[in-house]
Amino acid sequence: MSIHDLIARRANPTADQAPVALPLTLEDGRLRRARMLKPKVSFIVTSYNYEKYIVECLRSVTRQTYANWECIVVDDVSTDGTVAQVRAFVDSPEAGGKFTLIQRAENGGQMEAFRDGLKIATGAFVVMLDADDVLLEDFLEAHMRAHLSVKTVAFTSSNQYQINAQGEIIGGQHMDHQAHGHYRHVRLTSFQTGFWIWATSSSMVFRRSTVELILPCDGTTFRICADYYIAHFCHLIGDSLLIPTIHGCYRRHGGNNFGSNPVLGNINSVGNLDKHPPHDLFRQTMISHVLDNFDVFYPIFMGKGLVKFLLRLVKPSELPGLVAAYPQAFPRPLWHYLWLAAKQWWAKRATPVSEKFKILEPPRATPACGQEQA
Hints:
Layout: H1 3-11, H2 29-33, E1 41-47, H3 54-62, E2 69-75, H4 82-90, E3 99-103, H5 110-120, E4 125-130, E5 134-135, H6 139-149, E6 155-163, E7 169-171, E8 183-186, E9 204-207, H7 208-214, H8 226-238, E10 240-251, H9 279-292, H10 294-310, H11 319-325, H12 334-350, H13 353-356, E11 357-360
Parallel strand pairs: 1-2, 1-4, 2-3, 6-10
Antiparallel strand pairs: 4-9, 5-10, 6-7, 6-9, 8-10, 8-11
């Protein structure tokens, strides 16, 4: 248990002790007068043969009410008319000079296309936007309010409408998204078993620093479902926040890389799991990335904290091999880490769901501190 968790557990304010409402960061006039800037957000649109949808996707970016953004489109060697359409849009007055097109020399899949975009991105936050999806105009506004005024997390995920190839609304929410009407701080989870409680990657805004920390640097890549690796690893590093409101549209057109199943009713049959990379491949990649980059991760967690973090990924049966192979990360006897694993497993079971999916107050305005009206 961290010192922050200990303080929170012991605080226990009485009913008449209302918490102080912090100002809404985006409307705090003091920041503007101090010449502090709103953070830039980099949209990275990865595309392969999406000429039918990509211009509509890019137009939805231009409609954002939050103005400090850039958009990088990475084409993964499309064989249709995608590149011509994107180039025409990027050069048009509608794009406003805020779009950049990258053409890959060879097809590398979702993770490599995203990595290319990230290399030239300049934003402190990044969006992994699928070229067939559509954002609503207040997408960035809602996410940046959540990041800056609700909870500091690795990424946020808002709910989504679901649309078909013709742009018709076929679902009033995304069935994976588990906000259930509240801002929820998702924490204290492990990755020894798979779960998915967010909407799609197009619903997420990541801290760039977290994404850069977790991307594999040993040549491992994921041609599809790279968002599964990125979202889970970022979440394990810095938690996530579910935004209950809807700010985008996920398109099901039958040709999606994974989520291609139609909406059938009260069944969440997203895609063919046989196409999904094995859960253990993601898990082993995360473990290897942390241990092979020990010097990077150690200052973040320190020794005991790093072991606790790894035990959210490692199965007890894997500990003997890891303790023998990585003495720098596991300097104590094997029995000590087996005991820690059992202790952590029990603590996880004893933690109520209300603490793992902690309901938070929505961002709310206060009249003090020179705050301006939205």
